[in-house]
């Protein structure tokens, strides 16, 4: 588990050369790999929900989910290997924010 001042790096399991953690962050305390978008999203959610214990101000449940329409949460929904929707829902489940992020 990382301390507040440690550096963690997440790299694609097929990263090479200048794209690797060792090339980008030679002083990183830990390097973790992921194999697909689902994997990195799961790691991201675990870090924020479990390690940092971030919770929804409306429900007190974990802040981040992968389920659309969850009241008072930030929802990360991937629709392909390159696309994630970030949807923030208010009390009652209405959308406050909806943005698509696509990787290169």
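Q: What amino acid sequence fits the structure above?
A:
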């Amino acid at each position: 588990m990382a301390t507040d001042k440690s550096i963690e790096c997440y790299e694609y399991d097929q990263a090479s050369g200048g794209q690797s953690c060792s090339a980008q962050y030679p002083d990183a305390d830990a390097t973790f790999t992921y194999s697909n978008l689902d994997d990195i999203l799961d790691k991201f959610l675990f870090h924020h929900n479990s390690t940092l214990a971030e919770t929804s101000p409306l429900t007190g449940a974990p802040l981040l989910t992968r389920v659309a329409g969850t009241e008072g949460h930030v929802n990360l929904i991937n629709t392909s290997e390159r696309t994630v929707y970030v949807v923030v829902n208010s009390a009652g489940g209405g959308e406050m924010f909806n943005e698509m992020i696509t990787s290169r």
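Q: And what stands out in the fold?
A: The longest strand covers residues 95-102.
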